[in-house]
Amino acid sequence: FFHLQKKRRAATARRQHLKSAMLQLAATEIEKEAAAKEVEKQNYLAEHCPPLSLPGSMQELQELCKKLHAKIDSVDEERYDTEVKLQKTTKELEDLSQKLFDLRGKFKRPPLRRVRMSADAMLRALLGSKHKVCMDLRANLKQVKKEDTEKEKDLRDVGDWRKNIEEKSGMEGRKKMFEAGE
């Protein structure tokens, strides 16, 4: 038992040591990449953006401004062209992925499980916090004033329905119904 416990401790210690060594290596690699990117950026700027020397006369300043404007225009055109190219390629990529999806075949539906859920819970799941509809249908009904009709008067005259049922139950009730039907 103790032997197994020692092995486990050694394995976890080794695993922790390897993990920390990998993290240190990754950190140094990230630092090297950042430094390389910075050097690459400096080289690009030195190549494409020479240091600015301002001339003394007005005529030379105007010429410099015209050159800078022309350069800005050309850079903007390049940027626009690359954006359009990027949009085209992304659209093409989406179309190709859609074709690939279509070629693979129809989407298979996952097997659905039956879930018992009340109407209120279903509405709450669908509508979220907006759920204010109550599925108690009787609560949403309008109150209607009943007018006295002849049927209702007749029903009131008859009285309690239980009394009528008791009178009509048994053989005597059937006899009365039979005699009333004649």
UniProtKB/TrEMBL annotation:
One of its GO terms (molecular function) is actin binding. Keywords: Acetylation, Actin-binding, Coiled coil, Muscle protein. GO terms for biological process: cardiac muscle contraction; skeletal muscle contraction. InterPro entries: Troponin, Troponin_I, Troponin_sf. It comes from the Eukaryota. GO terms for cellular component: troponin complex. Pfam families: Troponin. Residues 18-106 form a coiled coil. Binds to actin and tropomyosin. Belongs to the troponin I family. Troponin I is the inhibitory subunit of troponin, the thin filament regulatory complex which confers calcium-sensitivity to striated muscle actomyosin ATPase activity. This is Troponin I, fast skeletal muscle. It comes from Grantiella picta.
